[in-house]
Amino acid sequence: MSSLPPPPETQAELGRPDGSAPLENDGELSDIPPWPAWTAPAAIVAGFVLGVAGGIIVGIVAKVGGSSISNPTPAVSLIGDVLFDGGFVVAAVYFAQLGSRIRPSDFGFRTVRWTTAITAVLAAGIGYYVVTAIYATLLHFHGNEKLPKELGVGKSTAALVGASIFVCVVAPIAEEFFFRGFVFGALRRMRIEVAGRDLGTWAASIITGILFGLAHTGSASPRYLLPLGFLGFVLCLVRWRTRSLYPCMALHSINNSLALGISQLHWTAGEVFGLMVGSLCVIAALTGPLAGRTRAIA
Question: What's the rounded Cα separation, in Å, for the pair 175 and 88?
């Protein structure tokens, strides 16, 4: 990213023009959004209700169209999953804007230097895969996600394309927006002091990681929920250290691409690499403009 000197700070950058929840512009607190901690559980409940409601509506429409509710088609499953994730995004936006005007940067849509992003993704990715490999070896299992099969990746090219877009693009964007962009930000407002040190961010990382793992209860083997929770925790650390959501979405997408391409589709290294690069390019195209004119973070 460009290393040109940033433009002079305006009042909108230094605080809230409406007077709500002013934060320091330097240091860790500048990355904490204005919405209070209570909005995290509220958004989780609201998002779940909206997601379930969306799934019910899709099921009813599918039933009217002659599809089976107990054995839905890949298209029905895909639409239901998109609406379910969308419910959490809507809930996050709703609760975030209750107290003040929100900006994309509040959720972590901030540019970050390439060196910082790549270093964070590599360090977090290597750490996650090492711990996961040790965990799988000790328990003698290899977990697979159920979701790609439910989306019919082996039934047709259209289903494969749809599942790939959802797993490697839509899910990383929506889940990172909700968990790392909204929930983690809200929970970081908790102050937990131990020996004079505020451990609120660490507590927020652990809680968000647990919630992230539990969110995959229906799509992954129960024994694999713990590694997924650890991934959620690691992604929080990436979000914290880079102050940006982009490295989180990148690592999430890369992980999903590897899981889909290797574990489910048994693709070659070149095909998996193409899936990763393609997914990252689509994510960048869709979310990159949200960073606006925010300066690159070292």
Answer: 8
